[in-house]
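Handoff note, outgoing to incoming analyst
You'll be picking up this chain. Sequence as last confirmed:
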Amino acid sequence: MWSDFAAKVGSTTRSTNFPQHAALRRLRRWEGERKVVNGKAYDYQVTAEKFELTASIPLEEIEDDNIGAYNAMVEDMGMQAALWADDLCFDTLIAGTSALAFDGKAFFANDHELKSGATIDNLFGSTSLTKANVAAIIAQMMSYVGEDGRSLRIRPNLLVVPPALEDAGRAIVGSNLIAQVFGSNTAAAGVENTMRGRLELKVYPELAAAAGGADDAFYVMDTTRSAKPIVMVERKAPAMTFKGKPEDDNVFWDDELVMGVRARGVAGYGPFWLAAKATA
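Most recent structure output, in case you need it:
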């Protein structure tokens, strides 16, 4: 699921640099010579880390044709290898209120600054998941400007929630009518839901409080372009190795077959203006 909100980048070195800018390049009327437009350069670097998963099977279990009992374990190792990028990207998303983006501030912060005097706020506190709050976050994201003072052209298209907020999220993006209280009336009336179909809802169990996230936090994202809020750097894709030859030490000394998965990679942050986080 990581590719819903993260962009994959291959790497041939231990550390990967991401030159970042926030000045949009626009076509201009060609008068005289070409004009080189350079935005402010930011140095952002991530370093790949190693990951492993290892298991063993007693050799007599294979000799006695009892391998079926271990099929689930082997299949789960394959599943965990497939979910490795998910683990990295969701951990990085959750850490966004403290881990730093390319401008030296937390990825989700109230004081990103690209243009002097104009800040980008992509962290909303005391903000519950309601239609009005989501609409306000979308409006603020669409008003972000870059270093050149022009619109960053943000088009939010994704509402990301933990399981605890699934019902509220579905009501916002899918209901034809939504409850609204008018004036001093205590009864809510059903009005047309203008948010219906505007965002796609994604519900991720990895964002639940029990999994390290928060049950009252949600995210609004723009994933319509090649750049994404999160970057997944794959240095070495997960690969499984088996050690089961008679001359292998694990077979000779311990009488067991050993299998292991190895991978190298890291997840980091893309442009912070592509995502906003809110908590109640």
